[in-house]
Write a structure and sequence with these properties.
It is built from 12 helices and 20 strands. The chain is an alpha/beta fold. The chain has 2 domains: 312 residues, Adenylosuccinate Synthetase, Chain A, domain 3 (Alpha-Beta Complex), CATH 3.90.170; 100 residues, Adenylosuccinate Synthetase, subunit A, domain 2 (Orthogonal Bundle). It has a 10-stranded mixed beta sheet, sandwiched between helices. Strands 14, 16, 17 and 18 form a 4-stranded mixed beta sheet that branches. Strand 16 and strand 17 form a beta hairpin. The structure holds inosinic acid.
Length: 432
């Protein structure tokens, strides 16, 4: 029963899209389990460059079935738009399944996300404004509307009263708390009917599909979204996303048993980035940061916001490895560091005059932490486009080996450029 999880080890944007696209050649299924269209997974292939927000990055392989699992929150307009872009590029999108248990992101969630952020003022989280947080709030408050509800046969007596109840609540908040415009029930109901019609061919009980695939021994590649340090429980709360991007979320977000995931691959960028607010201990606020941002084009795939940039944080990285039990690691964007000397790794923090080696849970403690760095001489030859481990420059290899030591897991793959073939595979992740 082989499931293989690919999970962001940092604050998202680690390059999971490319890694999943690369590994999908050996999988029968590629599945998403958490988050929504706050994610932006970039895939570059023969058909062009795509920023996928909801559709799993395996969609480009004709032999792969893609699944949006129950743990994902789905904005139907975004999904339909993405499907139409893919179809125009010649991709067969009939190989997509959307869980009937996945929750919908409704227009009132998007409105509330923006209004709540505005009201936070200087304490804004810096959300992507896609309604993801408010949709998960409703799921937990048991007033969410699910993808399967769009197909409710008894519309007038079952679906409409629920929609009316929740919209009444939301409009009260939108108008009274935020003094903004209410949403119209009739228009929303109409939208839901259209969404139901258009999404019907894709909607299925995805957990059953996946359990059957596991029973047949097929490979399921599990595509994480965001990153472990944005996890609602384990991340830098409250500067986190509202789901569990770490491995725990994969079991509940797909409805498959823990024994089915036989490998977990942590994706780490060779340096750190984060979008939005919250602590980033190794943040580079001066020239080096700006240079990395420009060279690597570190601007959000979803919002276009400039990403904050820092050196690799091995304290945070080790914490992430231990939370997920990564069996294997992939290092991405190593080629960006070709342009720097020295290159630094943060190996410990100094907190209130003491050196610590753990990742504090409190944001205010993290904000007081100063990085303790180990420096590495840069490498004179580029790593860009290298495809074999023994072709890496000696100093780049020393950097990789030290990261392995600090993180406590093997770096089995290295991405040296945006294209599929710009990949070093030291040990295959998917077995057989
Ligand atoms: P939300 O998920 O839109 O509620 O945003 C919460 C936090 O997670 C913000 O700091 C976002 O910038 C961050 N975030 C959400 N999705 C991603 C992602 O895919 N990559 C990087 N950061 C993300």
């Amino acid at each position: 029963m082989p499931g293989y999880a690919v999970i962001g080890g940092q604050w998202g944007d680690e390059g999971k899209g490319k890694v999943v696209d690369f590994l999908a050649q050996e999988a029968q299924y590629v599945v998403r389990y958490s988050g929504g269209n706050n994610a932006g997974h970039t895939v570059i292939n023969d058909l062009g460059e795509f920023a996928l927000h909801l559709v799993p990055a395996g969609i480009f392989w004709p032999h792969v079935t893609c699944v949006i699992g129950n743990g994902v929150v789905v904005d139907p307009d975004t999904l339909l738009q993405e499907l139409s872009v893919l179809a125009k590029a010649g991709v067969d999108t009939s190989r997509l399944i959307v869980s009937d248990r996945a929750h919908l992101i409704m227009p009132y969630h998007v409105a509330l996300d923006r209004l709540e952020e505005l009201s936070r003022g200087a304490n804004a989280i810096g959300t992507t404004g896609r309604g993801v947080g408010p949709a998960y709030v409703d799921k937990v408050a048991r007033v969410g509307i699910r993808v399967g509800d769009l197909l409710e046969a008894n519309r007038e007596e079952v679906f409409l009263p629920r929609l009316e109840h929740v919209l009444h609540q939301k409009n009260a908040i939108i108008t009274k708390v935020y003094e903004s415009e209410p949403l119209d029930l009739g228009a929303l109901n109409q939208k839901c009917m259209e969404w139901g019609e258009r999404l019907k061919p894709y909607i299925q009980p995805s957990e059953v599909v996946l359990q059957e695939a596991l029973a047949r021994g097929e490979n399921i590649l599990i595509e994480g979204a965001q990153g472990t340090l944005l996890d609602i429980d384990h991340g830098t709360y409250p500067f986190v996303t509202s789901s569990s991007p770490s491995i725990g979320g994969a079991y509940t977000g797909l409805g498959i048993p823990p024994s089915s995931i036989v490998g977990s691959l942590g994706v780490f960028k060779a340096y750190s980035t984060r979008v939005g607010g919250g602590p980033l201990v190794t943040e580079l606020l001066e020239e080096t940061g700006a240079k990395i941002r420009e060279l690597a084009w570190e601007f959000g795939a979803t919002t276009g916001r400039p990403r904050r940039v820092g050196w690799f944080d091995a304290v945070a990285g080790r914490y992430s490895v231990s939370l997920n039990g990564f069996t294997s690691l992939v290092l991405t964007r190593l080629d960006i560091l070709d342009h720097f000397s020295p290159v630094k790794i943060c190996t410990a923090y100094e907190l209130d005059g003491k050196v610590i080696h753990y990742f504090p849970s409190s944001v205010s403690a993290l904000e007081r932490c100063k990085p303790v760095y180990e420096e590495f001489e840069g490498w004179s030859q580029p790593t860009a486009s290298v495809t074999q481990m023994d072709k890496l420059p000696r100093n780049a290899l020393a950097y990789v080996r030290r990261l392995e030591e600090l993180l406590g897991a093997p770096i089995d793959m290295i991405s040296t450029g945006p294209h599929r073939e710009e990949t070093v595979v030291n040990r295959p992740f998917i077995k057989g």
